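S1.2 Input.
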Amino acid sequence: MNSFYVIAFDSTHYAIKTEKQLKVQFKIDMIPTPREISASCGLSVKFSEALVNEIVSSLKETSKKGLHLYKITKLETGTRIAESINWED
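S1.3 Output.
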């Protein structure tokens, strides 16, 4: 299995604002929102599983309104599963 995390957004404004904030400290990629996730915005921020705790901590001071955290897991069959992650976890 192969996993990564994405933050999906309700608007492009949130996507651009969050990307600017995170790229100063972390290796992230702006990607099209994975089809397994339904979000209003077609952009998502992708990052490795190793960075999830640091990124969530860095966003603690930021309003998470309009931001949705997901874990995407690719199974051996090629199927991808999106799991919504609660920001409070």
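S1.4 Remarks. Residues 2-85 form a domain with the Alpha-Beta Plaits fold (CATH 3.30.70).
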